[in-house]
Amino acid sequence: EFLAQQPDVDLFSIEAPFEWHAKQAWINRLIDHYGLERWFLYADADEHMVYDDCESRSLRDVTARAQVLGLRRVRGFLLDMYSDRPLALAAGDGVDLHEAYPYFDGEGYYEERLSYIVSRTGGPRLRAFGAIDRQIKPQLTKYPLFRMRPGELFANPHHFWPCEANFRSPCLVA
Predict the structure, then answer these.
(1) Read out DSSP for 128-168?
(2) Measured in Å, how far apart are the chain's first and last C-alpha atoms?
(3) How far apart are CA 73 and CA 167, in angstroms?
(4) Helix (H, G, I), strand (E, B), or coil: what is residue 11?
(5) Model confidence pLDDT, tens digit, residues 101-136
(6) What are 4-49's pLDDT values in tens digits?
(7) What value does the mean pLDDT of the chain take?
(8) From CA 65, how far away is CA 69, in angstroms rounded?
């Protein structure tokens, strides 16, 4: 509702049931619609992006640094944050997320280079879901900030095609 009232927001919705491959198609169509060679920020509704000195630096500062580094994809890390209160009581309108959710698990994360991505897994998601099925390894690498060229494809938030550029970015955001 808040975003729908903003003059600089284009809001899209769909009535059909959620399907991940349809979501990816929507994202690629919107990238085509708004144009290549510009920065896009992709975030799910439950995500909040942070980076070094985010209290004093803008997102434009991050994209400027990425350009100086020759990056077109900025690698991020999905870090789950927690409150010391029940989830339903921890936050509400006007609550600062950093204050409401100040805790995180700093141990048990692993990085490895796969054929298409620098993969980070581990932490509480792996402990929770891995206890159910050892084959489940939740992907914690994401490229939320990107600039695409013709011929590139947003395969999903965790990697782009062609894959070579997925390996160039250090982890700059969480």
Answers:
(1) HHHHH-TT-----EEEEEEE--TT-EEEETTEEESSGGGGT
(2) 26
(3) 9
(4) coil
(5) 889 988 889 999 999 999 999 998 898 888 898 888
(6) 999 998 888 888 888 888 888 889 999 999 999 999 999 888 888 9
(7) 90
(8) 6
Burial status of residue 81 (CB atoms within 10 A of its CB: 0-12, 13-18, 19 or more): middle
**Strands 159-161 and 103-104, sheet pairing:** unpaired
How far is 148 from 146, CA to CA, in rounded Å? 6
> CB-based burial of residue 148 (10 Å sphere; 0-12 exposed, 13-18 middle, 19+ buried)?
buried
3-state helix, strand, coil in the chain (%, to 5): 30, 25, 50
Interval 61-81 mean pLDDT: 95
Is the separation of the CB atoms in 41 and 73 below 8 Å?
no
Task: For the full predicted model, state whether its pTM sits above 0.90.
Answer: no
Reading the block at residue 69, the tokens are 């580094």
